[in-house]
Write a structure and sequence with these properties.
By secondary structure, this protein is of the alpha+beta class. The chain has two domains: about 70 residues; about 130 residues, Lipocalin (Beta Barrel). The chain contains four helices and nine strands; from the N terminus they run E-H-H-H-E-E-E-E-E-E-E-E-H. Strands 1, 2, 3, 4, 5, 6, 7, 8 and 9 form a nine-stranded mixed sheet that branches. Strand 7 and strand 8 form a beta hairpin. Helix 3 packs parallel to helix 4. The two termini are about 35 Å apart.
Length: about 220
């Protein structure tokens, strides 16, 4: 099963953020070298023998992976950083209510499930579980709209569970528009290459551990 994957954010340059992270890594490396050098100097002046420390590996190149990991996993979700990046934090579980339609937009049947979104600054994974099948995203993109809402578009693969002979493995595409506050979303989906259906989706956030301040910062 495919796990988290990269996603694009229209209007957001990760290269620019990367340059900031590189600058931070260089500053951290310089400060660390100065502090260690100062400690060694004081210890030598006091006649205290300390283990020899090789300082040359403490460069920005060595520090950058750590700085990047911290930012990618944690810092990007801080309220002030979210406000600057303009990337919504969609992490959490969402109740899904959907309808399958025909060409006349009449409802063929209704179904429900749970959508779990796992997201970092660089990667995302959208997983939909229903009693009959399991689907997961393979590619995605985010667009910030003029009114401050966000649109998530993603391609997914759906695999039916055992004992579902009427279903077949297929791929599809979903487009969801998240309301301000990131508590709900609505959109459409369509399937192809194994199952030719389409319909509407509505999501409502079930759980969010990041607090109201994060949701308000980006709205």
């Amino acid at each position: 099963m495919t796990q988290d994957h990269e996603y694009s954010v229209i209007g957001h340059s990760r290269a620019v953020v990367g340059r900031y992270l590189g600058t931070i890594a260089a500053a951290v490396a310089s400060i660390t070298v100065l502090l260690l050098g100062g400690v060694l100097g004081i210890a030598d002046w006091l006649g205290i023998e300390l283990p020899q420390v090789i300082l040359w590996p403490l460069t920005a190149v060595a520090i950058f992976p750590f700085v990047h990991w911290i930012f990618n996993r944690f810092v990007w979700k801080w309220a002030r950083v979210v406000s600057w990046l303009k990337i919504p934090d969609l992490n959490g579980e969402w109740n899904c209510q959907a309808r399958t339609l025909n060409m006349d937009k009449a409802v063929l049947h209704e179904w429900s499930g749970t959508v779990t979104i796992t997201q970092t600054w660089e990667k995302i994974w959208v997983n939909l579980r229903t009693p009959q099948s399991n689907s997961y995203s393979e590619a995605a993109a985010l667009i910030r709209e003029p009114d401050g809402c966000f649109r998530l578009m993603y391609r997914y693969k759906n695999e039916p569970k055992m004992g579902e002979p009427e279903l077949a493995t297929h791929v599809g595409f979903a487009e969801l528009r998240f309301a301000k506050g990131l508590k709900s979303a609505e959109g459409d989906y369509f399937n192809s290459k194994g199952r030719y259906t389409f319909g509407t989706i509505n999501l409502r956030r079930r759980r969010n551990g990041h607090g109201q301040a994060v949701r308000q910062a980006i709205s």
